[in-house]
Every structure is written in structure tokens, then in C-alpha cells.
Amino acid sequence: MVDVRGSFDAPNCERGLRGLGKANIAATDQKRGRISGLRGRPRNIALIDALLIGGKGTIGAGLRTYLPRLDANYKVTSADLPGAPDQATDSNAHREFIELDASIDDAKLRDALVGRDLVVYLARKDPLSEMNAMTDRVFKAIRDVCPNAVVIGSSSVHATGAAYYGYTREDNSPIAHRRFDEVNPWPEPLSVMTEPCPTGDYGVEKAYVEAWCHRLGAEGQSAVAARWGGINPTNGKKDEISYFTVWCHQEDSARFVDACYKTALTGKLRPSAHYYVISDNTYNVFDIETTRREIGYYPQHNAESMYGDGKSEISLRTD
Q1: Domain range holding 94?
Q2: Mind spelling out the 3-state secondary structure of 241-256?
Q3: Is residue 224 part of a domain?
Q4: Does 11 reside within a domain?
Q5: 2-31 exposure pattern, b = at least 16 Cβ within 10 A, e = fewer
Q6: Which residue intervals of 189-249 are DSSP H helices?
């Protein structure tokens, strides 16, 4: 998980989100005349054809490893830059690769999208302007090529950084320093309904992805944004302040994607939703109960299995 520092630049955010304003996001593209959603679509039930755009990275490596374990019907393909290093360490991770640069290879990107049931957009690049331009290209291609696919856009807890940094990153924060007996009451979990409030360019780029997911949802496509927590290749600790509050095991990230897809098949996926994707951490500060209730997300891991110091037997959360 990238550490975003500095204050939120409102003019920068306004420029970054321009063109995907409320009017555009709420608009329905009736001229396209396509049938929206998944219901009524003939499909091969025995195969879930998934494309990960940027799937060699940490999150994608986890999805390629754990999605097929959750359901053997997943066929996972990863589209990545030529020569991109693969973060997958499990020998059984799916390794069907397509080489393309999603920021410029429009024809290759569109060809890779043909016939997909599930698309997970994970790729990123710097600077912000180029990242947002790539996001435009990817989502426009998805709309044109596979409007019936379930789409998961890669956001982050950093999209709402300003809403939680105050009590997890202050110099003498009791939560950050694990002095949990000083925290009474425990903060109300940050609602999944929290609007983006980033504190730097990384959060702004994720808010832009969320805006596109809102737009596709308004047009009838099953599209949600995943506000990923702290995911790393070894599923272990990281030397990052309050990491135990945001930690997410790769298996739980795959459970989230699987839950989104299976919920979409029933026609019950809330369009344009954004969900926090966090493991079932004892000292969690994010709302995953809504995610559990709406899509059946049941994370199996807890950061206290690594950080536990004897105080983790009792949760201070109020569910």
C-alpha cells in the first residue's frame, strides 16, 4: 500500500475529476441501446473468464492464486506491460499472460477484453495525468467491448485518507501505538458510503477510478470500486504506521472479488458501490459489515495473528 503524505490539493482534485462530474456520472447512455447487467445473458456456467489488467502486481498475484482455489471454474488471464515482474510466489497461480501497455495499446486492450465475464482493473502509472488518461482508455474500452462483464475498479483506503488519518496517524495516536485501553469508545467504522477525500495524488487517482465505476453503474453495468487495504506479497507485517488496521490477506481480497461476481450473477450487486476490502482485523477502523451484508464478504484472516500481544482476545469494535 502506497503511503500518501501531504495535504489534499482541492484544485488538483477538481482538475483530475473534471469530465466525470455528477451530471456525467448520473447520465444513462441510452443511445447505445445495449442490454445492461448480467440477467438474461447466455453464459458458459462452467467457465468464469476473468481478465486482470495489471495482474502481475501484488493484488493481481493474490487473485491469480486464490480465485481458482475458491472456485475451480475461474480462468484468470493477466494483461501486463512487456517484461513486468510477476509478484506471484505460488506455483499454482494462473499464469496466462498477455503483453500490452493499457495506456497506449488500445487495439490490443480491446482485443483482450473480448468475451470476458469479469474484468479487474489494477494497473497504475505516474504521473497523475497519465494515470487518469489510462483509466479513461480502459473504462471506455470496457463499455464498448464487454458491457455485460462484471467490473471491479482498483481504489484504495487512501481515497478516503482524510477521513481516518487523524486517529490512525497522529504522532501520539493511541491506535497507532497500540495503546488500545486508552481508546474508549472505539471509533465508529468508516462507512462504505464515505465520499472520496484523498490527501495526495495517489488518493486522487483512486477517486477517479471510483468516478468511472459510478458512471458504468449508472449506465447499468455491474461495476464496483474496491477500496483495497494493505496487501503485500507475503501476507505479513509491514513497517507502516497502523498497518494492522488496514491489513488484508490476499485470500480475503480474492473472497471479495468472488463475492462481487457471484452477487452480480443474482442481479443483486449494488451498482456503483465502493467497498473497503480489509481482513477481519480485531482493531479495524473500516466498515466491512455492509460489505458482508450486501455481497456476503466473509474474510477469514485477522492481523492480530501476527501483531497480537495478548490484548487481541477482546475486540474494541462495536458491530
Answers
A1: 43-307
A2: CCHHHHECCHHHHHHH
A3: yes
A4: no
A5: eebeeeeeeeebeebbeebeeeebeeeeee
A6: 201-218, 243-246
Each residue's pLDDT expressed in tens, for the chain with a length of 319 residues: 333 333 333 333 433 343 443 333 333 333 233 333 443 344 445 699 999 999 999 999 999 999 999 999 999 999 999 999 999 988 889 989 999 999 999 999 999 999 999 999 999 999 999 999 999 999 999 999 999 999 999 999 999 988 887 766 666 788 888 888 888 888 889 999 999 999 999 999 999 999 999 999 999 999 999 999 999 999 998 888 888 889 999 999 999 999 999 999 999 999 899 999 999 999 989 999 999 999 999 999 999 988 865 443 333 332 3
Q: In what order do the strands lie in the sheet with 48-53?
A: 96-99, 74-80, 48-53, 118-121, 150-156, 223-228, 274-277
Q: How far apart are CA 252 and CA 205, in angstroms?
A: 24
d(Cα 135, Cα 125) in Å, to the nearest integer? 10
In a domain, 315, yes or no: no
Number of domains observed in the structure of the chain: 1
Helix 10-17 and helix 128-145, axial crossing angle in degrees, nearest 10: 30
Is the pTM above the cut of 0.70? yes
Q: CA dist 77 to 49, 68, 74, 190, 220, Å?
A: 8, 12, 10, 33, 25
CATH number for the domain harbouring residue 268: 3.40.50.720
C-alpha cell at 239: 513497517
| Contact predicate 159/207, CB 8 Å | yes
Q: Amino acid identity of 110?
A: R
Cell of 246: 488496514
Short-list 218, 59, 53, CA closest to 143: 218
- Residue 286, in any domain of the structure: yes
Alpha carbons 165 and 171: distance in angstroms, whole number = 11
